[in-house]
Amino acid sequence: MAVTRGFVGKRRGHERRLPPGQYDVGGSWPVLTAEATPRIEPDQWSLRVDGLVERPTTWSWDDVHRLPSSTYFGDIHCVTTWSKFDVAFKGVSVDALLDAAGPRPDAAYVLAHSSTGYTTNLPIEDLVDGKAWVVWEYGGKPLPREHGGPVRLLVPHLYFWKSAKWVSRLELMTHDQPGFWEQNGYHDRGDPWLEQRYQGD
After folding, report:
1. Where are the domains of the chain?
2. H-helix or E-strand containing 89?
3. CATH architecture group of domain 45-194
4. What three-state secondary structure class fits 44?
């Protein structure tokens, strides 16, 4: 099982792990969502990768657990200014999913879809090379419903609204298509270290 320490190797001190404008939330993990929390049983869940791919692929709960698992250990940052240190998530790297689906050369962006209808947009570069996961465990336990369980996207180097809860589809596209929060004024990329919170930042 691969373990990724996260993007904090060059920032050793506590204060140097906090992006500008953030605070350490400590042991808590605030619950924030744009929609009602759905109840999705693992045997009802599936994930599809399609759009500009050679092999559109759908994984069931059992299918995705047959892929090589990967663990992220590091920090997460929310646009509402909290950060949480030393979190541990287990799932599968988005690299493994894209390897199976075969992105076409003109695929430059991904629109992540949730089962609730929520969407968020990402450059494909922010999902590859060990930067993103689809995860189903947090702290060694099943991911709680209120935090996106049974499965969520995890893109820890960007603000956490980019880590779509209840993820069900990754759609590869040639162009950038704003998602839910991006249409409502949030930044298209959301880099915490650049304080890309809102359009124009």
Report:
1. 45-194
2. strand 82-93
3. Alpha-Beta Complex (3.90)
4. helix
